[in-house]
Design goal:
Blueprint: H1 10-21, E1 26-27, H2 31-40, E2 44-50, H3 54-67, E3 76-81, H4 86-94, E4 105-110, E5 113-118, H5 128-142
Parallel strand pairs: 1-3, 2-3
Antiparallel strand pairs: 2-4, 4-5
Length: 143
C-alpha cells in the first residue's frame, strides 16, 4: 500500500514528533506496523494520535509527558500523526471501535482490545495536569 502524502511540511511537524519520540514513544509510520503492534503486542499499548492543532501542543503532548512520570504506564507507547502519517492514522482508527475520528486522542489497548479512549473533546480547553490525571487513572487501572 503506498504511503499517502502529508498535508504538512516535515519541517513544521518534526518538533511535534520529537516531543513524543523524546519520551520513548515509537512512531508507527505504516498501516502494516500499526497492525503488527496492536495485534501482536501482549499487555498494554498506548496509541497517541498526534496533531498540529493548538490543543495537542497546549494540552495533549504536555499532559502525556506528565502522565508518563507515573509509576504505572503502558508497556509500549506509540504514535501516529493525523494529517501526516495518513495511512497509518487511518489504520489505527480502524481499531478505535465505537469512537469517531479525533485528533489529538489517546487510545489504550490491552492484549489487542481497546480499553480506554481519550478523545479531542476531553483534551481541548483542558490543562495538561487535568489530562495527565485522566491518563494516570487509566494507566493505574489497565497497566
Amino acid at each position: 500500500m503506498p504511503i499517502s502524502m502529508s498535508r504538512y511540511a516535515e519541517e513544521l511537524v518534526a518538533p511535534m514528533r520529537k516531543e513524543l519520540t523524546d519520551l520513548g514513544v515509537e512512531e508507527l509510520l505504516t498501516p502494516e506496523r500499526v497492525d503488527e503492534i496492536i495485534k501482536k503486542t501482549p499487555g498494554t499499548v498506548m496509541v497517541i494520535v498526534n496533531s498540529v492543532c493548538g490543543c495537542a501542543a497546549g494540552g495533549a503532548r504536555p499532559g502525556i509527558r506528565k502522565a508518563l512520570n507515573n509509576h504505572k504506564r503502558p508497556g509500549l507507547m506509540t504514535t501516529v500523526f493525523a494529517g501526516v502519517d495518513i495511512d497509518a492514522t487511518k489504520k489505527a482508527r480502524e481499531y478505535f471501535v465505537g469512537y469517531a475520528p479525533s485528533s489529538p486522542s489517546v487510545a489504550l489497548f490491552k492484549d489487542g482490545k481497546i480499553v480506554y479512549m481519550m478523545e479531542r473533546f476531553q483534551i481541548e480547553g483542558r490543562l495538561p495536569e487535568m489530562i495527565a490525571d485522566d491518563l494516570i487513572s487509566a494507566f493505574n487501572k489497565y497497566c
